[in-house]
Design brief:
By secondary structure, the protein is of the alpha/beta class. The protein has helices at residues 6-15, 22-32, 91-99, 130-151, 168-179, 201-240, 249-265, 269-281, 286-301, 311-314, 324-336, 355-366, 374-381, 427-430, 449-472, and strands at 33-35, 39-44, 55-63, 74-78, 87-88, 102-106, 161-166, 187-190, 197-199, 337-339, 391-396, 415-418. The chain is built from 15 helices and twelve strands. The strands form three sheets. The chain has an eight-stranded mixed beta sheet with strand order 2-3-6-4-7-8-11-12, sandwiched between helices. It has a two-stranded antiparallel sheet with strand order 1-5. Helix 6 (201-240) crosses helix 8 and helix 6 (201-240) packs across helix 9 (286-301). Bound molecules: 2-acetamido-2-deoxy-beta-D-glucopyranose (6 copies). One 2-acetamido-2-deoxy-beta-D-glucopyranose binds next to strand 12. Belongs to the peptidase S28 family. This is Putative prolyl oligopeptidase.
């Protein structure tokens, strides 16, 4: 299962492992984060219960180096479906410097060290939802403002806030401004998946478009060959992909599809397409070429693990470093779906990755009665008809997730597409490729740095305007 932005974080985790170049690693590690110093906040477990007053400890971070005391803006960077290990020094570092902003970031409930329970059994996951998460952010925002006021010895002051997020946190960022407009002057919703989609066939179609004619044809032929081999000699086939542990064929096929997804999503299309197209031209075995890509790049460089695709493993309710997969699947299976199914015609992924596969996974991993109500989610937030204001939407042209984002501007909600060969998920914040990490979101290696630069200028213009309007509303600064 590829969550919208899980992979990038897996990559970080995997780069922290021991290597001989300890000193250099420490330096680059500290350059990657504005801060990693953990702070804790007592959060309400159930914001919607009239009588349940239980609390849990929620992790957060603050970075004040650039803060223009006392009335600079506060940037709230929303963390999502992964362990939030600090505030990363992506483009937010540049923006904070530019605006004299304090930066704070709250870990999403249940993920990382912010689990309310010692076990992630399905019954304990009942408070895991985007609605609760948004309320967490609101309560945290208010509380942080109070503590800032106390620190600065003032009362009733309100700094101008701005929220940021990429991917699912991008959707949270848009929804936060929608539901709590009095708590933020505006929002950046980068690659924000605001539309819950049940059968997300457009995802596979976008992969086809991003791949281009030749690579798409090679990928489709590879899928057909793999499907055939799976029937005749499945065990040997899986072993050749270092994926022998994926006993359920659907899990294996999903894993193979997802590996290609990440190449386009995170700005590395050539690593996939060049060798595959070459193999086809040279009459070499496409399955071997694809296995090489999976083993060297996806499992190797990117540090992915087949465990994240293994339903038997996703059932594990113990809290481990690998729990994010289970937690995200729960959100998928209850709220947002984004089922990445094969379209009925012209698909790249195997047609066996269908709606049934996803529904069976939900039932198998979480139990009877667990399936997503996307209609309810879209009624609650509005999908792409979101009735918000002062939200900037951005998308990368090659990102399969863009089809679940708001790609057309409407009054007070501009939408920008960053178009280039390796512009994917969250390019405005992350530069290119989107994995591995670029310090300060450096855009030099985007095939069109100018496309990124132009959209960033637009973001800054909107921020400038909305932050200044916020200060004009009579909300006091001091
Ligand atoms: C806080 O403000 C009060 C009232 O203006 C003043 O008496 C006090 O000395 C201030 N404390 C600090 C730490 O600045
Ligand atoms: C999703 O696809 C399945 C299988 O093709 C179909 O039965 C179902 O009606 C579709 N559901 C929606 C909401 O589109
Ligand atoms: C988490 O996944 C990694 C990579 O597959 C594995 O090496 C590690 O043992 C797993 N940890 C736990 C606690 O399961
Ligand atoms: C199937 O896809 C091909 C290629 O995109 C297209 O030319 C054809 O019209 C499609 N057929 C149907 C029935 O949608
Ligand atoms: C850009 O790519 C080159 C070559 O791969 C690499 O050496 C360099 O570090 C990259 N620069 C940035 C800013 O990512
Ligand atoms: C605002 C903007 O750039 N919108 C474009 C985003 O992408 C869609 C789909 O490719 C285009 O149709 C929009 O014009």
């Amino acid at each position: 299962m590829m969550s919208p932005c899980l992979l990038v974080f897996l990559f970080f985790i995997s780069t922290v492992s021991a290597t001989p170049h300890l000193l250099r690693r420490r330096l680059s590690e500290s350059a990657r984060y504005l801060t990693k110093e953990e702070l804790w906040f007592p959060q309400t477990l159930d914001h919607y219960s009239p009588y349940d007053h239980r609390k849990f400890q929620q992790r957060y971070y603050e970075f004040l180096d650039h803060f223009r005391i006392p009335d600079g803006p506060v940037f709230l960077v929303i963390c999502g479906e992964y362990s939030c290990d600090g505030i990363r020094n992506d483009y937010i570092g540049v923006l904070a410097k530019k605006f004299g902003a304090a930066v704070v970031s709250l870990e999403h409930r249940y993920y990382g060290k912010s689990s309310p329970f010692k076990s992630l059994a399905t019954k304990n996951l009942r408070y895991l939802s985007s609605k609760q998460a948004l309320f967490d952010l609101a309560v945290f925002r208010q509380n942080y403002q109070d503590s800032l006021n106390a620190k600065l010895n003032r009362t009733n002051a309100d700094n101008p806030w701005f929220v940021f997020g990429v991917s699912y946190p991008g959707a949270l960022s848009a929804w936060f401004r929608l539901k709590f407009p009095h708590l933020t002057c505006g929002s950046l919703a980068s690659s924000a998946v605001v539309l819950a989609v049940y059968n997300f066939t457009e995802f596979d179609q976008q992969i086809g478009e991003s791949a281009g004619v030749e690579c798409k044809a090679a990928l489709q032929e590879t899928t057909r060959l793999i499907e055939r081999k799976l029937v005749t000699n499945g065990k040997a086939l899986k072993a050749s992909f270092n994926a022998a542990d994926l006993e359920i064929d659907g899990d294996f096929l999903y894993f193979l599809a997802d590996a290609a997804v990440t190449a386009f999503q995170y700005g590395n299309p050539d690593i996939l397409c060049k060798p595959l197209v070459k193999a086809k031209k040279d009459g070499e075995d496409l399955v071997d070429a694809y296995a090489k890509f999976i083993k060297e790049f996806y499992l190797g460089t990117e540090g992915e693990s087949t465990q994240d695709y293994n339903q038997n493993n996703l059932k594990n309710a113990a809290i481990t470093e690998n729990s994010s997969g289970r937690l995200w699947w729960f959100q998928v299976c209850t709220e947002v779906a984004y089922f990445q199914v094969a379209p009925s015609n012209d698909s790249i992924r195997s047609s066996k990755v269908d709606t049934r596969y996803h529904l069976d996974l939900c039932k198998n991993v979480f139990g009877e009665g667990i399936f997503p109500d996307v209609d309810a989610t879209n009624i609650y937030y509005g999908g792409t008809k979101i009735a918000g204001s002062k939200i900037v939407f951005t998308n990368g042209s090659q990102d399969p997730w863009r089809r679940a984002s708001k790609q057309i501007s409407s009054p007070n909600m501009p939408s920008y597409t960053i178009t280039c060969h390796n512009c994917g998920h969250g390019t405005d914040m992350r530069g290119c490729p989107q994995s591995p990490f670029n310090i300060e979101g450096n855009e030099k290696n985007c095939t069109s740095p100018d496309a990124v630069h132009k959209v960033r200028q637009k973001i800054i213009e909107h921020m400038d305007l909305w932050l200044s309007q916020c200060q004009d509303t009579g909300r006091t600064c001091i």
